[in-house]
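Hi all, long-time lurker, first post. I run a small reading group and we've been trying to get comfortable going from sequence to structure in the token notation. Rather than ask abstract questions, I figured I'd post a concrete chain and ask someone more experienced to write out its structure so we can walk through it together at our next meeting. Sequence below, copied exactly:
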Amino acid sequence: MKRKAPKRTCIACGSTDEKRELVRFVRAQDGTVACDPGGKKAGRGAYVCRDSACFERARSKHLFEARLRCSLSVEDYERLEQEFSVCCSDNAAPTR
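-- Answer (accepted) --
Happy to help. Here is the structure in token form:
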């Protein structure tokens, strides 16, 4: 029997898609936030479409901070944007 793919919602636009099609950001126990392309790191997660417009909307409306329950500096956002662009440039969805 084939399992149904888990669905997740983009925090910026609200669209629902398969987990593997979205980019996950995770807040670890130590409070750091990072891109999680494999979707397996432990911690509180938030998902964004693989579209730079969704990332920018989540950034400008402070949706990362709200969903991940943390505060992020300008430097944090710059680092996350670089990690996001690397995740999206890979084009291949991460493996299970």
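A couple of things your group might point at:
The first helix runs from residue 52 to 60.
DSSP finds three helices and five strands in the chain.
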